[in-house]
Amino acid sequence: MDISKALDRLKAVNLKGGIFGKTTTLLVVLCICVSAVSMTTRVWWIALALMFPLMLMIFYSLKRCLDFAEKNPHEAIMDGAELLVHEKMVFAQKNESINPLLETTV
To answer: How far is CA 96 from the centre of its chain?
Structure first.
């Protein structure tokens, strides 16, 4: 498989909003910060002591995010206003009255 094709597929996925997008952004920034600290230290065991707990934390966090996304897919990828519009559409399809908390205020 060509690497450029794989990267093009990754660029097509847009997870900027919601819990999932914000958590993955936080984990990437955390990896960059810990990597910078590990590179500045010349002692190998300090870098290992920083990287091993980081990898465990990333694995656990991503597992929890994926579990949440499987149970609540819309909440995982949508941000505030998009989620409210989606909930309004769901209520409209069910022919139920819209929850007063979701009505727009003037």
So the answer is: 31
Q: Which residue has the tokens 């559409």?
A: 89
DSSP 8-state assignment for residue 2 = -
Percent of the chain scoring above 90 in pLDDT: 2
- Tokens read off for 101: 């908390």
Please write the tens of the pLDDT for every residue from 59-92: 898 888 888 878 877 777 777 677 677 777 777 7
How far, in Å, CA of 105 to CA of 103, rounded? Answer: 6
Q: What is the 3-state secondary structure (H, E, C) of 86-106?
A: HHHHHHHHCCCCCCHHHCCCC
- Amino acid at residue number 34: V
Query: Looking at residue 60, what is its pLDDT?
Result: 92
Question: For residues 26 and 58, what is the distance between their CA atoms, to the nearest angstrom?
Answer: 10
Tell me which amino acid residue 105 is.
Answer: T
Overall domain count for the chain: 1
Q: What is the DSSP string of 4-24?
A: HHHHHHHHH----SHHHHHHH
